[in-house]
């Protein structure tokens, strides 16, 4: 993430899990999808993306498999696991509570 768009710790993990919901994607495609879905507000740098992917893989929330990208290059494709889907559901609920609380404070002061 760029300095002006730094996210709360854990938010990148949530975004990655959500973006992988439809199916497997390689790293660059994940970053592009986050950028697209955020209307170019969130830009995920490789220096943040790949450590997050490794962390999620280590937690067994995603799996990785080598394949060929759309431009015929070898790439790792990441997929959600059953545990990853459960974690995503839990994290979305936490995010909803947090964002509602922050919004409540911003609205009242």
Automatic annotation (TrEMBL):
* Annotated ranges, domain Transcription regulator PadR N-terminal: 16-89
InterPro entries (UniProt xref): Metal_resp_DNA-bind_regulator, Tscrpt_reg_PadR_acidobac-type, Tscrpt_reg_PadR_N, WH-like_DNA-bd_sf, WH_DNA-bd_sf
The record's listing under NCBIfam families reads: padR_acidobact
Q: What is the name listed in the Swiss-Prot or TrEMBL entry for this protein?
A: PadR family transcriptional regulator
């Amino acid at each position: 993430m760029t300095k002006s768009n730094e996210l709360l710790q854990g938010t990148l993990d949530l975004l990655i899990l959500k973006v992988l919901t439809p199916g497997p994607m390689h790293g660059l495609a994940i970053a592009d999808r986050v950028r697209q879905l955020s209307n170019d507000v969130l830009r995920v740098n490789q220096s943040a993306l790949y450590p997050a992917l490794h962390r999620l893989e280590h937690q067994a929330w995603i799996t990785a498999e080598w394949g060929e990208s759309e431009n015929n290059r070898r790439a790792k494709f990441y997929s959600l696991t059953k545990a990853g889907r459960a974690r995503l559901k839990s994290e979305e609920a936490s995010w909803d509570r947090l964002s509602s609380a922050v919004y409540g404070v911003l609205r009242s002061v």
